[in-house]
Design a protein that fits this description.
By secondary structure, the protein is an alpha/beta fold. Helices cover 38% and strands 18% of the residues. The protein is built from 8 helices and 11 strands. The protein has an 11-stranded mixed β-sheet. A hairpin with a 2-residue loop joins strand 3 (20-24) and strand 4.
């Protein structure tokens, strides 16, 4: 889908849509000026909030330890969830993909952040491509530079949006949304684009996106989150209307629209996490979010 421009050796041009991508410090920039403007305030707010939360580290050791340990000590509870999710993926889902298409399966990591999962994929012999909107050196694709000397070949990094991926159709064996699908403005648009990039019978994986049994609980979560952000950071961080959560209704709607069938996986996140819904109900509080992994095959 993308070819090299003969007149400009450092620019890639899409044969189909004429979208260009230029390299900048090892990252292919595939956002058009208008889409960059669309996401500008979101990126500014998101980077500010993530920095205040202590995301990122001062040296390579921090990134190499992810997701199993947060050496900063600032977000260990969240990384514990990420670690258990990844352990499940590595033991239960990735081996099936590799058994079907080979050890060197091509995978797309959408919403890759600092690239820790693409790094882990590379260690397993997979061929990942990391995609994200953020490119900073602390929490975005720029931070993946810490992995380069630990890999025989650095995985490609691309700044792009999930609804306009600069890749050929049917190019990947699997597409992963890890802690990122809920940032979509449209689940339908993001899933349609992911399926386009996926080969027939390839696997879509959605992990670590909040799930609620009903829409009202998710809407309450959004309102609480925006109020907390406004009080702490001076912004409600709602310049982009991300959907923020999943429900069974939303998942069924995607099944019907794309002819897919979700398979649910339930990693064990520990006894305290399992008890959260019961404790919330007992105390008459809002339903807490829950995490599951969803996989689906691209239909013929």
């Amino acid at each position: 889908m993308i070819r090299q421009n003969r007149q400009e050796e450092k620019t890639l041009i899409c044969d189909g849509c004429h979208l260009s991508a230029v390299p900048r410090e090892g990252i292919w920039i595939a956002l058009t000026e208008d889409r960059m403007a669309h996401y500008s305030q979101f990126i500014t707010d998101y980077e500010m909030i993530r920095a205040a939360e202590g995301r990122g580290g001062q040296n390579a050791d921090y990134y190499l330890a992810l997701p199993y340990k947060d050496l900063s000590g600032k977000n260990q509870a969240q990384w514990t969830i990420r670690a258990r999710t990844y352990s499940y993926l590595a033991k239960q889902i990735l081996p099936k993909i590799q058994a079907e298409v080979g050890v060197n399966a091509r995978v797309l990591d959408v919403g890759a952040g600092n690239g820790w999962m693409s790094y882990r994929f590379s260690q397993m012999g997979l061929r990942p491509v990391a995609v994200d909107l953020l490119v900073n050196d602390q929490d975005g694709l720029g931070a993946a530079k810490h992995y380069q000397e630990h890999l025989q070949e650095m995985f490609p990094r691309v700044q792009a949006e999930s609804t306009r991926l600069p890749f050929a159709s049917a190019q990947f064996d699997a597409v992963f949304f890890n802690a990122s699908f809920h940032y979509a403005e449209s689940y339908e648009a993001s899933l349609r684009e992911a399926l386009r990039c996926l080969r027939i019978s390839g696997t879509i994986v959605v992990a670590d996106s909040p799930w609620y049994s009903n829409k009202s609980s998710g809407e309450l979560m959004i309102a609480e989150r925006q109020a907390a952000f406004l009080k702490r950071f001076g912004t409600s961080s709602d310049s982009i209307r991300s959907l923020e959560f999943l429900t069974d209704e939303r998942l069924r709607d995607l099944e019907h629209k794309f002819g897919i069938r979700w398979e649910r996986h339930n990693p064990f996140y520990g006894f305290p996490w399992t008890m959260r819904p019961w404790i919330a109900s007992w105390n008459r509080r809002r339903e807490p979010s829950r995490f599951q992994i969803y996989t689906a095959r691209k239909p013929a």
